[in-house]
Amino acid sequence: MRKNAGYHSGGRMFSDKKWIIPFFASLLVSASLILTAILGEFSYSGGEEQLPLVDVVSLNGLEDNSSGYFVESDLESSLNANVVVKMKVPKFAYLISGTKGDSRRMLRTLEAVYHPRNQYILHLDLEAPPRERLELANAVKADPIFREVENVRVMSQSNLVTYKGPTMIACTLQAIAILLKESSEWDWFVNLSASDYPLVTQDDMLHVFSNLSRDLNFIEHTHISGWKLNQRARPIIIDPAFYLSKKSDLAVTSQKRTLPTSFKLFTGSAWVVLTRSFVEYCIWGWDNFPRTMLMYYTNFVSSPEGYFHTVICNTEKFRHTAISHDLHYIAWDSPPKQHPISLSMKDFDKMAKSNAPFARKFGKDDTVLDKIDKELLGRTHRFSPGAWCIGTSDGEADPCSLRGNDTVLKPGPGAEKLQHLLQVLLSEEFTSKQCL
Fold first, then answer.
1. Under DSSP, is residue 389 helix (H, G, I), strand (E, B) or coil?
2. What digits encode the pLDDT tens for the residues 177-215?
3. Secondary-structure percent of the chain, ordered helix, strand, coil, rounded to 5
4. Angstrom distance (rounded) from CA 208 to CA 166
5. How far, CA to CA in Å, does 135 sit from each of 132, 264, 364, 424?
6. Helices marked H in 143-183 — which ranges?
7. Where do the coiled-coil regions begin and end (predicted)?
8. Whole-number pLDDT of residue 28
9. Domains, the chain, ranges and CATH?
10. pLDDT digits over 155-177, tens only?
11. In which element (H, E) is residue 360 found?
């Protein structure tokens, strides 16, 4: 049986000659591939000088100009994948939020910070009547520039927002998620309220930020201590905006909680300029830490002044990117400095000398806004002037009614002021205090 079986198999194999030609053909192809791979390996190991010229030029130029902009040397590891991006004019993504009666102020702030390169999302909270939200949406929809560029959106879902509660964080994260979904090309997220106003033009901002690493986060922060531990970290609160249709104060329980030991708590300004990579991390939370912090800050007094701060300072990848400044000029009340005072004409000189790109808070239609428009922004029509406005300015004509190349910038005096501020913020003395 075995002999017959063996013979039958062997006989069939050697009697079929069709396998010979394919076998030698495949052998020849395999040998050619192996030889090519070996020769290619030798060529690669000795051919570094043959890299494309554009790559060499980009990297050399970056090394020459980046030393003053990086907070820590470990940030440089992420540059190679973004060399081309860093050579371009950046883009900002703005959230402008307001409540009942703020729609006109929101539009004024929008027009003052508008630039075709940027993305904008407006949120008028649930306290505003439906008619006001509809008027805001219709104003954006009817605007010829906004309609042409398609970079201004009004959030259709209105949320009830408590400033000191986690509903403000939830609204901010929702806006970030929408901005990430709608556009893949912006670099920094900026949150403003209807009571904020710019002190420099967007051409100034874009020009100065063109020379910055896309890894820098501007978020004023400090390690929470003293009375804030007892009055903010220990209480257990409930934000009624999660459950009710009208605003009311936070509900504070009689119980207290212990402080966490697995992470450190930080606090600071609720107004931030955050990188796309960091806010993506907050949305996706691939190691679950941002979601853990979101749950923790659900029961935290003034959680908007702690959530992003605690996340960034407890994450090794981002903690060295945090610059402790909110890029705002704010005048505070007497100690403990918990409430910003309304800015007016008497504050103009201090605002102008602060070199900050934004200021808050302003009353509705305060005359100091007209002074800012005239003397700091050079704003004579709807939008703050920029190189993208190429229309005629004869008579009452709006030069921004005709749109030009949005990559061309015309920085003014505000750019020099902002550059001076950033030189201070990026100095070794300032950055050495990160997340401490």
1. strand
2. 999 999 888 999 999 999 999 999 999 999 999 999 999
3. 50, 15, 40
4. 33
5. 5, 44, 18, 43
6. 144-149, 166-182
7. none
8. 52
9. 92-227+250-431 (3.90.550)
10. 988 888 888 889 999 999 999 99
11. strand 358-360
Q: How remote is the C-alpha of 258 from its chain's centroid? A: 33
Compute the C-alpha angle 88/424/203, nearest 5°.
35
* Strand ranges inside 175-282, DSSP E: 188-193, 197-198, 217-218, 222-223, 235-238, 251-256, 266-267, 273-275
CA angle, residues 189, 192, 195, in degrees to nearest 5: 170
- CB contact at 8 A, 247 and 354: no
Residue with tokens 């959230």: 95
In angstroms, the CA 194 to CA 125 distance is 12
Tell me if 300 sits within 8 A of 306, measured CB to CB.
yes
Residues whose CB falls within 8 Å of the CB of residue 403, separated by 6 or more in sequence, listed in order: 116, 145, 148, 149, 388, 389, 390
35 CB burial (10 A radius; 0-12, 13-18, 19+): exposed
Task: Return the number of other C-beta atoms located less than 10 Å from residue 406's C-beta.
Answer: 19
Q: Residue 37: its pLDDT value, please?
A: 40
Residue 44 has pLDDT above 60, yes or no: no
Buried b (16+ CB within 10 A) or exposed e, 182-209: eeeebbbbbbbbbbbbbbbbbbbbbbbb
Q: Read off the pLDDT of residues 347-393 as tens digits, 9 standing for 90 and up.
A: 999 999 999 999 999 999 999 999 999 999 999 999 999 999 999 87
Tens of pLDDT, residue by residue over 221-276, are 999 888 888 888 888 888 888 887 788 888 888 888 898 999 999 999 999 999 99
Give the relative orientation of helices 103-112 and 130-142 as an angle to the nearest 10 degrees: 30
Q: What value, to the nearest 5°, has the Cα angle with vertex 109 and ends 397 and 170? A: 145
Which tokens in the block code for residue 342?
Answer: 């309304």
